[in-house]
Amino acid sequence: MSGSQTTVATICQTLSEKIAAGGYSATGRLPSERTLSEQFGTTRITLRESLSQLEAQGLIYREVRRGWFISPPRLLYNPLQRSHFHAMALEQGRHAKTELIDACQLIGSDDLCQKLALPPQSALYCIRRIRYIDGRAVLYVEHYLNPQFFPEIIHDDLTKSLTDLYLSRYGVRYGRVRFDMVPTRLPPEACDALKITLGSPALFITRINRDQRDRVIDCDLEYWRYDALHIDVEVSGGA
Fold first, then answer.
1. Closest CA to 131 of 158, 96, 157, 105
2. Run of H or E residues at 221
3. Which tens digit of pLDDT belongs to each residue from 111-135?
4. Checking CA distances to 73, which of 24, 48, 104, 224 falls within 20 to 30 Å?
5. pTM, to two decimals
6. Distance between start and end Cα atoms, the chain
7. Maximum Cα interatomic distance, the chain, rounded to a whole number of Å
């Protein structure tokens, strides 16, 4: 093993042990790269390789122009449970917040119209939001809605749960849902919203939702920070 590799391994082990012992828990933030380089007597290149390895393990994360932070526990996510984001966080003792980026009506792409079972060039509502867990931005999501089922919804308070709004205002409940999950790289708009480096890894979830009458009502495109989510599914069945 080369000297550089030995140094990287030593830095990773030392920082991992300090994080596990609660060494940075008061602020949740690691010292600056310059400070850490001086502490370990190493170059910024070697230090960044060490930090990147810890990031790949999900122990720390980086925010553009802010530095390195300790990763909080992942949010447990069961796609089979129809619990909305805020309720799911509350059940796990976490604090959730939703921030609206914008909401508008637009002409849907052929792909979106197909997902929503609509003719090409149909008008759709688009709602873009950032979702936070314990103050950390973890999810950039684009919601595409069939306006026929939710007239004027884009003028409502869209920081609230859409699940609750659908039911209270329109009498619409979720029914069947189709999930598609793939690892990907974050697109520029998601990186800007989550304040992380362009091309960072993510879990991309597409949800096509039907209502209680089995009508396709909306489609969600979710970009999760890869270190923020733990997919946890239990299915019972026979042999």
1. 96
2. strand 216-225
3. 999 999 999 999 999 999 999 998 8
4. 48
5. 0.82
6. 49
7. 65
